[in-house]
C-alpha cells in the first residue's frame, strides 16, 4: 500500500491540478443549503484539505471522506480536524453500498482515482446510489498513469513478475477510446453528462528529487519487494519511469540541467443524477 506521508509529500501535481479544475467548474457546481458531501479515494487527505474543503459552502452539513486503505484513513484522521467530517474505509467499487448512504449526498467527488479503479462500471453505479436525485458528481482522472507501461513490462519480467503488478494497471491502459467508454458507463449508470472536459497536460517537476519521490510514491509494490531485490528493482523502475510513454526529460538550454516532465490526458467530469 502507498505510504501516506510519502504520497502527501510528493503529490503537488494532483493537488495543483484539482485546485485548477475546481476553479474552472466553480460556476457549474450547484451548492445547496446544508450540503451532504461524499469523497472517495481521498488518499492521505492533502488534496481534500488544500483543494476541496476550502471550496465547500460554509454551511455544509456533513462531509464523509473515504478510501479503500485503512492506513490512509488512519492518517487522515490525525490531519484533518473538521468537526463535520467523518472518515471511513470504503471501496467505491464494492459490491454493496451501506443502506444509510443511499440517496443521501448532494455531491460526490473523486480526484485522480478512476484510473486506479478496476471495476469502473460498478463504481459509477455506486456513485449513482450515493447521490440524491438531482445530485452532482465531479471527477478528475487520467486515461492511464505513467507507471502503467512499467507495470505491464514487469508482468513478464524474469525477476519482477513474482511481484503482483497487474492490479495496479489502469483499467483502460492501451484502450483506443477511453473517453467514450467512460461516458457510456456513466450514462448506463443513470447519469446525465453535464460537462466533460479533456485536456493534454504536462507537469514539470522542480528537480530530480521531486520526480523520483513522485515515482516512488505511486508504487505500492515497493513495500513488498525483498531486501535482496530492492535496490535492483528500484533502480530499474526509476530508469523505466524516467523516459516512457508519458514521462520524458529535456536539457535546459540555460543551465544545462535535466528537467523532468510527466504528460497525461486529464478528464474532468461533472454529471447529474437524473
From TrEMBL:
This is Methyltransferase type 12 domain-containing protein. PANTHER family: TRANS-ACONITATE 2-METHYLTRANSFERASE, TRANS-ACONITATE 2-METHYLTRANSFERASE-RELATED. It comes from Psylliodes chrysocephalus. Residues 39-137 form the Methyltransferase type domain. It comes from the Eukaryota. The lineage of its organism: Eukaryota, Metazoa, Ecdysozoa, Arthropoda, Hexapoda. InterPro entries: Methyltransf_12, SAM-dependent_MTases_sf. Pfam families: Methyltransf_12 (PF08242).
